[in-house]
Amino acid sequence: MTDSLRNSPLHPVHEAAGASFTDFGGWNMPLKYGSELAEHKAVRGSAGLFDLSHMGEVRVSGREAGAMLDHALSSTLSVLKPGRAKYALCLTDAGTILDDLIVYRRDDGAEGSEPDFLVVPNAGNIAAVHTALNQRASGWDATVEDESASTALVAVQGPRAEAILAHAMPAQAEQLAGLKYYGHLTLSLPTDAGEVTVLVARTGYTGEDGFELFVPADSRQEAGDRGSAVWNAMLQAAEAADVELTPCGLASRDSLRLEAGMPLYGNELDTAHQPHASGVSFAVPAVKEADFVGKAALVGADDVQEVLVGLRGEGRRAARHGYPVLDAEGNRVGEVTSGAPSPTLGFPIAMARVAREHAAEGTSLQVDLRGKGEPFTVVPLPFYRRER
C-alpha cells in the first residue's frame, strides 16, 4: 500500500482482526478477513458486519435545500418526507453519470425548521460530488458541507440483522421493527465508550435486509473511536443474542451486490454512459418539472443502442470486467461490466452492456474468455432476490 491511501477510522480494528487490505477509491480498505466465500455465505445465511467509512457524507441544508437538490440531481428530493431516503443520480451536463447516491432527509419537518439532507456519494467520487453540489447551489439558499472526514459508517447486513440491532438497543427494538426499507431513525446506542447517537438507515448493498449506522464525531470523541465502539457493540450484541455475525470485506460485498444486480460505479456506471444504457433509468423520472442538470441531454435517451443485461454462464468459467461479449457468429456485441462465480446460485453470473438487438431474455451469447468463447444466456436482473 502506498502512503497516499487513506485509512478507515476503524483501521486498527481491522488490523487486529487479521484483515487483508486493498485499494478502493483511494482508500486502504479490508478486502477480506479469512475466506471471502464464507463471508458471502454468512450474509446470505445470518449476518455480516461491514466498515463503509470510505463512503462520503455531504450535508445539504437551508431553506431552499430541497429545491436545490431537485436542480442538482435526477430525483425529486424536495418532496422526500423526513425519515425517508431516495436513490438519485448526479449527472453531468451531457447526461452521463458522475455518481449514484442515496439521499436521506434528516430534519423533522416541523413548521419553521429548515430542510436538512444527507447525500452519500461513493468513495472515489466524494470530491467530485461535493464540488458539483457546491457549484449547483449557487443562487440558492442552501449550504453544502462535506462531513465525510468526521463520520464513520458501519453496516449490518443479512436476515438476522434486525435481531442483532434489537439486542443492541432493546429499548428501541419496536422502532427498528417498524422501520421500512429506505427509512431511517436517529437512535442512541449503548457502547463500551458510552452512549453513541447514530443515524440508523434500513438501506444496504447486498440484496439482504440490513442496516447502515452513520456515526458522527462529537466534541468528546473522534469518528474512529465512536465507529470502533459501534463495531464492537454489534459483535457483542450478536454474541449475546446467539446470532452469527461475521466481519466482511469488499470481496464479499462485491459478489453480494452482483448477485443482487446492483450497479457499481466504475463498472456499470461512469461518465461515458447515460442512465438508460446503465440499468438505472428508474432514477430519472419520466416527468420532472425541475430543470435538473443533464435533463436536456436525456431527451430521447431511452432509445439507446446498448443496454445493461444479466448473463448466466452455461459452463463453469466466469466472465470478468472488460471481457468482450460475442454473438453466435463471434461478432463483438458488447462488453462485460461485472462478472464472477455466484456462491449462492452455483453458476457464473455477469452484467454486461450489449447491443439492444441482442438483449432479449433467452438470447444465447458468448463471452471471450482469453480467446475462447464461453456460452452465456441473457437473463433478467437481479440474479438473486431474498425471500421477504
Give the CATH H-level superfamily of the largest domain. Probable tRNA modification gtpase trme, domain 1
Helicity level: 10-25%
Radius of gyration: 21 Å
The rounded distance between the terminal residues' Cα atoms is 41 Å
Q: Number of helix segments?
A: 8
Strand arrangement, largest sheet? 11-12-13-10-4-14
Q: What fraction of the residues are assigned to beta strands by DSSP?
A: 25-35%
Textual characterization of the structure:
This protein is an alpha+beta fold. The protein folds into 3 domains: 156 residues, 2-Layer Sandwich (Gyrase A, domain 2), CATH 3.30.1360; 89 residues, Alpha-Beta Plaits (2-Layer Sandwich), CATH 3.30.70; 125 residues, Aminomethyltransferase beta-barrel domains (Elongation Factor Tu (Ef-tu), domain 3). It is built from 8 helices and 20 strands. Strand 12 and strand 13 form a beta hairpin. It is globular.
Summary of the model, kept short:
The protein has about 400 residues and is of the alpha+beta class.
Keywords:
3 domains, alpha+beta, six-stranded mixed beta sheet, Alpha-Beta Plaits, 388 residues, Gyrase A, domain 2
Task: Annotate the secondary structure layout.
Blueprint: E1 6-7, H1 11-16, E2 20-24, E3 27-32, H2 36-45, E4 48-51, E5 58-61, H3 65-72, E6 85-91, E7 97-105, E8 116-120, H4 126-136, E9 143-146, E10 151-157, H5 161-168, H6 173-178, E11 184-191, E12 194-201, E13 210-216, H7 223-240, E14 246-247, H8 250-259, E15 306-313, E16 324-326, E17 332-341, E18 348-355, E19 364-369, E20 372-379
Parallel strand pairs: 1-3, 4-14
Antiparallel strand pairs: 2-3, 4-10, 5-8, 5-9, 6-7, 7-8, 10-13, 11-12, 12-13, 15-18, 15-20, 16-17, 16-19, 17-18, 19-20
Helix pairs in contact: 2-8, 5-7
